[in-house]
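To assess whether ligand presence alters the predicted conformation, the chain was also submitted together with nicotinamide-adenine-dinucleotide. Input:
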Amino acid sequence: MRVAMFSAQNYERVLLDELNTSHGHDLVYLDTLLGPKTALLAAGFPAVSVFVNDTVDRTVLEDLARGGTKIVATRCTGFNHIDLEAADELGIQVVRVTNYSPNSVAEFAVGLLLALNRKIHRAHNRTRESDFRLDGLMGFDLVGRTVAVIGTGKIGTIFGRIMAGFGCTVLGFDVHRSPEFEKFGGRYVDAEGVEAADVISMHCPLTPETYHIVGRRTLGRVKNGALLINTSRGGLVDTEAAIDALKSGRLGGLALDVYEQEADLFYRDLSSSIISDDVIRRLISFPNVILTGHQAFFTQEALRTILGTTLDSISDFEAGRTLTNRISRRLDG
Ligand code: NAD
């Protein structure tokens, strides 16, 4: 099957070529993001594959449908970038990758927390300049502290279990309770409980209900000096409100692997460009902010599973088999 691979990175191409030997698809790699201006590039491709920052809204889907696209395969778990209702209406099937090493993201979130708390990013920069002072590098013991997990699904549960292993009290905030989360001692709380935590980590999907779920109100009530970790989706946190909370000192530190306006920035080398986004420049200027470019998923195991599952889904579609990773507004409500 002819597949237009949008946002294809070099590290993906090598692995896709290797995995595709057992599928035999005609993979065409495109550097560009899929969006209203680039959708026409997919004309004549029955399969289109996208990543987190591609735009797959109604307009784009209409262009894809006109060009003969029948399946959109997103190489990620989240599907906030895809208009499922429009896809259903246009008869385009959408598949994602539901289960690829949730450990990759959970472990990265733990890494961000440790670095943020113990100022490892600052220590690293200092020692490179032969500055071995400790001033400003003090953190706190995690043992005995309270960690709130917003979204106790696959990733949130693993993150919570690791933090329980550190000797933390682990709290969960979710619309559904997970027995797995409670098995290691995770305890469900309401918004007030989250606000009392020393650490808050985001692991729910971005939906209209969760947009800015951590906003000005929550950030005004969090425990003084609390640390906020977001490895889920940028839109979950009101970035401007977070900047104000950092400026006031209420928020003790912020670690982000995702950013509200990341689509124009991430996965590109902009080191010789002038960045016009003043919000991200402000964020980067704080000593107690760590920003990474949406890499929490990026392990050998996860990437192999993501790409393998994507090709499997396209092959299943071509052979008329059931699509186990299909997402549809009708199915997901
Ligand atoms: P999951 O579906 O297993 O878990 C999500 C949890 O969020 C579920 O328990 C769900 O009930 C909960 N939730 C939904 N709406 C909620 C609400 N309004 N309030 C509180 N909780 C709510 O998903 P997962 O595999 O654990 O992934 C979680 C998220 O992580 C994804 O949606 C994606 O955005 C993000 N992610 C990021 C990366 C990365 O590289 N940074 C990689 C993979 C996934």
